[in-house]
Write a structure and sequence with these properties.
By secondary structure, the chain is an alpha/beta fold. The chain contains 6 helices and 5 strands. Helix content is about 50%, strand content about 15%. A 5-stranded parallel beta sheet has the order 2-1-3-4-5, with helices on both faces. α2 runs parallel beside α3 and α5 runs antiparallel to α6.
């Protein structure tokens, strides 16, 4: 099963994303800031990291730089409601897979995740697609917290 780490200092956003991901068959955990995310990637080894840019202390760009060292195989999708075009380009230049503005379009996020997971782990991608289809047709999905 695909492991996803959600890094956002706003608890309601973290909770919504974790619930959405869990409902779609992913194993999702959260971190409230960059240092916590860096500590968690060592043990979780997530395939995908959803990373907010605007966080107190270590911002998303600095966190991304460190995550590229700690988890070079993880796909990082940046999320932000405050970033400008230059910041988005900087994140992409640093190796982010995609950049999504808040409020999040969850259908776009789902498509982005499926596209990236298929390239990372073909078997996990097929499982995620099947679970997503089942969830779209009334299945309640699995939850992992």
């Amino acid at each position: 099963m695909t492991q996803i780490l959600v890094v956002d200092d706003e608890l309601p956003i973290r909770e919504v994303l974790i619930e959405f991901l869990s409902d779609h068959g992913y194993t999702a955990q959260g971190a409230e800031d960059g240092p916590q995310a860096i500590a968690l990637v060592r043990s979780l080894k997530p395939q995908v990291i959803l990373l907010d840019i605007a966080m107190p202390g270590m911002n998303g760009i600095e966190t991304l730089k460190r995550l590229r060292e700690q988890a070079p195989g993880s796909a990082v999708i940046m999320i932000s409601g405050h970033a400008d075009h230059e910041m988005a380009l900087q994140a992409l230049d640093l190796g982010a897979y995609d950049f999504i503005q808040k409020p999040l379009d969850l259908k776009y996020l789902e498509r982005t995740l499926l596209a990236k997971i298929v390239t990372l782990e073909p078997a996990a991608g097929r499982d995620a697609q099947e679970e997503s289809r089942n969830a779209s047709h009334g299945s309640t999905g699995r939850r992992a917290r």
